[in-house]
Amino acid sequence: MNQAESINTILLKKIYSLNFIKDQNACAFAHNKKETSTNINPMTSTKLLLFPSIVISSMASAQTTSVTVSGRITNKDKAVLPYAGIILKKEKDSTFITGTITNENGRFSMTGIKPDHYLIEASVTGYNTKLQPIFVGSLSEFLEIPGIDLGPKKDTETKIEEVTITASKKSEIGNQLDKKIYSVADNISQSGGSVLQSMQNLPGITIQDGKVQLRGNDKVTVLIDGRQTAMTGFGSQTGLDNIPSSSIDKIETINNPSSKYDANGNAGIINIIMKKNKKNGWNGKVGFTAGLGSLWVRKENLPTIRPQYTMTPKINPSLSLNYRKDKVNIFLQADNLYTQTLNKNEFVTRTYDDGTVINSQLKRNRNTNFFTTKAGIDWNIDDQNTLTISGMYGSEKIIDRGDQPFFNGDFSQRLRLWQFLEDELKTTVMGTASYQHKFKEAGHLLNIGFNYTFHREDEKYFYDNYLPATTGTDAFKLLSDEQVYDFNIDYIKPLKYGRIETGIKLRNRSIPTNMQFFPGSNSVLDASAGGKADYKEFIPAVYGNYVFENDKWEAELGLRLEYVKIQYDVNPNHPTYKSDGYNYTQPFPNFRLGYKLNDRHKFSVFYNRRVDRPNEVDIRIFPKYDDAEIIKVGNPALRPQFTNSVELGYKYNWGSGYLYSALYHRFANGTITRISSIVPNSTLIYAIFQNAGKSYNTGLEAIWNQKMSDVYSFNINGNLYRNQINAFSVLNLYPEPNTFSADKQSAISGNLKMNNIFHFSKGLDLQFTAVYLAPDVIPQGRIQSRFSIDVGVKKAIQKGKGEVFLNASDLLNTMVIKKKIQGVGFAYTSNDYYETQVVRLGYSYKF
Q1: Would the CA dihedral through 520, 525, 528, 533 be positive or negative?
Q2: Stated pTM of the model
Q3: Is residue 60 part of a domain?
Q4: Phi and psi for 83 in degrees, rounded to 5?
Q5: What is the extent of the structural domain holding 161?
């Protein structure tokens, strides 16, 4: 041991001895925080809950505001100085925070540093001690400070340079004001249901017709573990109502994505993060939930049809296993969600221009079994290299049995009875490999990933048509095999005042589809519209993103350049549509500027440009029944919708809560919407996707989060917005050319959500949530207001390892979808008394 090493080792030993208890407590606290998802003590969680979420609390780990501070000590000639003493102190009062020494390469690293102003002191025998101010911000979790040069003792010059370090604050509404993080486990009132049900109480999110909307807009990109998958739909939201929430760790919502994300989805991004434990040794969690829905009949069936589902069972067993030892971490997550559901129970009155009135009911009893499992291995090759390989398998079986009777205006005569059976099996297989290299500087990363997805839709449909004089059976079969290859390289480089992010992504996607029609007597199916179609998508993209932060200002500037080539080859014998496609090269910039007035007040402004490409099902050429007299058809001529967004945000913090508000405006060209119209000499309604021209979405969102005491906290989220679609005229080609025109349509709408959280003693928690959705505009019509109340209670048992919960969604059974539609040649009103009230009882145990 040389003299420098000896002196500084003695110095650090003194520092550590004086602060041993403090450091031990800090280490224990940090260790416990990492394991809060599986081993959190109920009383501890009560004390840690400072900012409860609108509907569910943020993850304890998401509230951590810590950074790993790293750097290098050199002399004036840039030669490294090993065994230099490093001390970190608070700037305002010189309070000791932590200390360490540099290694043989002159490098040091200090973990768990919270955002604040500090002084870092570097010293080594034979050199001048240097004191340097450091600002720890909130934008990057790992960043490298510039090298610190020490002059020899004879050099009396002292040079003070300001250095900025940024940290990650993954709170519910972080300092970035662009991401919100919610724990599914803390959503007591929706535990045991699907991911879609877990989302419906989140701030800024509404559910309409099975689709997720952010701030009143359904153009949302849904990711799983940061990737687009066939389980949620590439650019769509299919499958969300069948993924069990028990397999999910947390949900992120991003209203203003940066350029590192795919450009698709103008409303924003929802990222579903699945569970994965990393505790040492064997550990895991088992759970079981049972529930009942449709506890009574809200509206009786029209005569002569089969009963609607009541007392529908919901069963969800789940298992999570993890084994970690040395450099290897192995994980397994398996869930099965079986449900019976009154999926639709819509009563419709349809009035045609000639005065004809038709009354009908569309009732759909659904059985669903969705099994999903994810397994993988993390291999920490060494301190700088990690390889993760994982796979996911999902099997979704859906059986729909439905009835749709048609009566005349006074219900004196049944004109028709339409019954159907839909048998669908959807299979998803995913394989992912990711490699991460950590450079010597903290936060200096290279990530390489490959993802393969296979998704099969095997669907069979049978329709019995009972007319007064005849009976006929229609049938068709759809088989679609989707394959997606994704490859990405991402690079992150820390800078003195922030970081740069850059990368490339390649996607190759193909969806060959085959539709076979088997029309019966009096069928309206267009058998000539069947056959094969092949969708091909190729998207290379490159992005760059620069992040800057100092004591008062923060900024983010990014650009994504995306090339898209879409080719849709259809059956050459199709009576209407021909092969089509498009390609473009477009820039997608993003910008954010934030100003911190002080520790309590922060302002931000956002801008980004995004795109919504038509989904494959939106351009699919095959006509399908939406109901007996509504035919749903895709449109290969559909083109992307481009959107520009601006937002002003403000956040005010105080000791027991915060207020967050945002004013936003989006304006889109080529708005994608579905048009419903009839053709001459027919009462059939054809619903076809079209580009409707320009549309606008302007709104104000506010969140008030308040802790009243250790027992009670509440959260109120309000969103008021205006949607507008300008007047437009389009040419529908199917089943024959016809022009559709619409006047300007606009409406002011919004939603209000209040969440009440009670943390009682002995691990007893209660949640009470009320949601109001104001009337809103929909294509060619309006949807009326809706209201629901959810309640849930959970109790920690078995010394915190076990948990039991009881909850009820739509407790008062008030959620009814009421619509008014004005089409060309017809108008209709509808009330959908679908299943919304569900009571669940669940138990879980951690080991």
Answers
A1: negative
A2: 0.77
A3: no
A4: 60, 30
A5: 3-34+65-169
